[in-house]
Amino acid sequence: RSASEVAEEIIDDETGELSPLFAKRKKFTLYPMSEDEALVQMRNLGHDNFFIFYNVETGRINVLYRRRNGSYGLIDPEVG
Q1: What angle do CA 49, 24, 68 make, to 5 degrees?
Q2: If residue 35 lies in a helix (H) or strand (E), which one and from where to where?
Q3: Which of 11, 33, 42, 47 could lock onto 37 through a cystine, CB 3.0 to 4.6 A?
């Protein structure tokens, strides 16, 4: 599906405004750390699903996440 098709689905028919997609927005400070430090922080903070951090090794924002099988994955996006 295209972005415009998805956008049409989230517009309220009665008001013509965008429906709220998010129940909550959260702002927080990203701290520079290694991938190993991020895993320790994720466990210490009790974040079971994911942890966002500034990777000092790559200089980019990464997402550490727990996979269904219990292992961990790392999302390392690049700006296109």
Answers
A1: 15
A2: helix 35-45
A3: 33
Taking the C-alpha atoms of residue 36 and residue 31, their distance in angstroms, rounded to an integer, is 13
Task: Enumerate the β-bridge partners of residue 74.
Answer: 64
pLDDT in tens, the chain (80 residues): 565 555 555 555 666 666 667 677 788 899 999 999 999 999 999 988 999 999 999 999 999 999 999 999 999 998 88
pLDDT of residue 25: 77
- CA-CA distance, 28 to 24, in Å (whole number)? 13
Q: Does domain 22-80 have CATH number 3.40.50.1260?
A: no
